[in-house]
Amino acid sequence: MKLPFPGRLLAIAVLSSLSLAIPLSQAHAEDKPKVALVMKSLANEFFRTMEDGAKAYQKEHPNEFDLVANGIKDETDTGNQIRIVEQMIATGANALIIAPADSKALVPVIKKAMDAGITVVNIDNRLDPEVLKSKGISVPFVGPDNRKGARLVGDYLAKEKLKAGDQVGIIEGVPTTTNAQQRTAGFKDAMEAAQMKIVSVQSGNWEIDKGNAVAASMLNEYPDLKALLAGNDSMALGAVSAVRAAGKTGQVQVVGYDNINAIKPMLKDGRVLATLDQAASQQAVFGIQAALKMVKGEKPDVDADNVIQTPVELITK
Fold this sequence. Notes:
Helix content is 48%, strand content 19%. It contains eleven helices and twelve strands. The protein has helices spanning 5-31, 45-60, 78-90, 107-115, 129-134, 146-161, 178-193, 208-221, 233-245, 264-269, 280-295, and strands at residues 34-41, 66-72, 95-98, 119-123, 141-143, 167-172, 197-203, 225-230, 253-255, 274-277, 307-309, 313-316. Helix 2 (45-60) crosses helix 11. The longest helix has 27 residues, at 5-31.
């Protein structure tokens, strides 16, 4: 049916107004960046706290960005983390905030994201600077000085509970991660400065069960062991169980790193001597803030090493 001429004019006017309204609303939606937060294992309380902090920040700033948060099953599930990043590329994320499970293996997919025009910010565990350089990319790192933090914990342990020559063991995180390497280096700095004897360094893969197995093995092999220095609190929880099972509670000191809620009762009753708070709930927030600046074409407040340093604090009883 053909509309009379005035009716056709009205229809054209209505359609024109709709065609103007739709792109405007779409433009508004497009103005709000989609930020993807990709973490390591959500079985680790540290990363659940990180996710909660990021979600709370998005609720406080709902008009500034949309947030998609995801994590992997366990700390060594690098392949799945790569797949998650690829999914975020495919679904059109504007910014990617990533705590990589591996400092080198994630670099190729990070480059793929950047080639797709996605702004990338690295948090928690630093991507390997040399591998980034080999791919011709630069990614700002937002996070703590892990070596400094571990040194604070180790110095406190040495000062409060040990004497020169005492035997200690270090339970390291995933050894291909920069933060595990830096924390082990910080523990070694402290122990060597205090003239302790480091009898073993073994990986507990950041996990409670593996930390427990490694601690039990060390306690069995070195009956004179005086302390276990764990690279995160999950492994420290495992170490506490191993110390108890060996009947050495109070004889072997345990320290950790992260200040998760599960460790707090143990700090109070002495099963854990010290840990390190690295602002878990705010670390992703700092990353999001840096990414949003970059999406707008602004430069984040990085130092000469392309790092935004976040705070650390020694936590004791």
